């Protein structure tokens, strides 16, 4: 069986440690756990590995956040990966910092990366793992906030949260969506 885990983010060093790039950070941790490296490929950086007998593709799209759908669709088609074996890892303003929420389907909730994936795939029925970044910003400052860096308190907790999200992503591969939601949601 093949799986595609996509960590959403923006390319470029100026975005590297921003809240909006948490999907990239989780993808990097997954690759580290699988002991594989990212290579430049079509539509981004791809790492290929095995987890408990399953082939796992970990993708960091280089299309910028708002055009992520093309990268997801390309790798699904190229590797013949069914939609139910796709997991999108993304940030979520509606959740408190570090909160983990996995769902099997849903709206884009105002997230432009998910919106583009929905449009390109023509469905909302794919698994997504949301990393809470909270909504601690003044009116009209959302873009600055999501493209801003973590504060000191968040930075202290970030490694542990990324580790948990990596474990949840790999649980999705081995244990499936429902078991992973039961084990990890709210953690």
From TrEMBL:
GO molecular function terms listed in the Swiss-Prot or TrEMBL record: peptidyl-tRNA hydrolase activity; tRNA binding
Family named by the database record: Belongs to the PTH family.
Name this polypeptide is given: Peptidyl-tRNA hydrolase
EC main group: hydrolase
UniProt-annotated site: Stabilizes the basic form of H active site to accept a proton, residues: 91
Keywords: Cytoplasm, Hydrolase, RNA-binding, tRNA-binding
Catalytic activity: an N-acyl-L-alpha-aminoacyl-tRNA + H2O = an N-acyl-L-amino acid + a tRNA + H(+)
Biological processes per GO annotation: protein quality control for misfolded or incompletely synthesized proteins; rescue of stalled ribosome
């Amino acid at each position: 069986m093949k799986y595609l885990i996509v960590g959403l983010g923006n390319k470029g060093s100026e975005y590297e440690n921003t809240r909006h790039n948490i999907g990239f950070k989780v993808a990097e941790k997954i690759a580290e756990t699988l002991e594989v490296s990212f290579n430049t490929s079509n539509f981004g950086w791809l790492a290929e590995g095995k987890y408990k007998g399953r082939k796992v593709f970990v993708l960091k799209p280089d299309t910028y956040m708002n055009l992520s759908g093309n990268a997801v669709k390309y790798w699904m088609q190229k590797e013949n990966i069914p939609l139910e074996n796709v997991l999108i890892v993304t940030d979520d303003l509606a959740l408190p910092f570090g909160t983990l929420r996995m769902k099997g389907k849903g709206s884009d909730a105002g997230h432009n990366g998910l919106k583009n994936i929905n449009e390109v795939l023509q469905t909302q029925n794919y698994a997504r793992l949301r990393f809470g970044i909270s909504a601690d910003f003044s009116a009209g400052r959302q873009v600055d906030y999501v493209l801003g860096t973590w504060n000191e308190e968040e930075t202290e907790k970030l490694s542990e949260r990324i580790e948990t999200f990596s474990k949840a992503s790999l649980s999705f591969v081995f244990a499936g969506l429902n078991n992973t939601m039961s084990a990890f949601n709210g953690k």
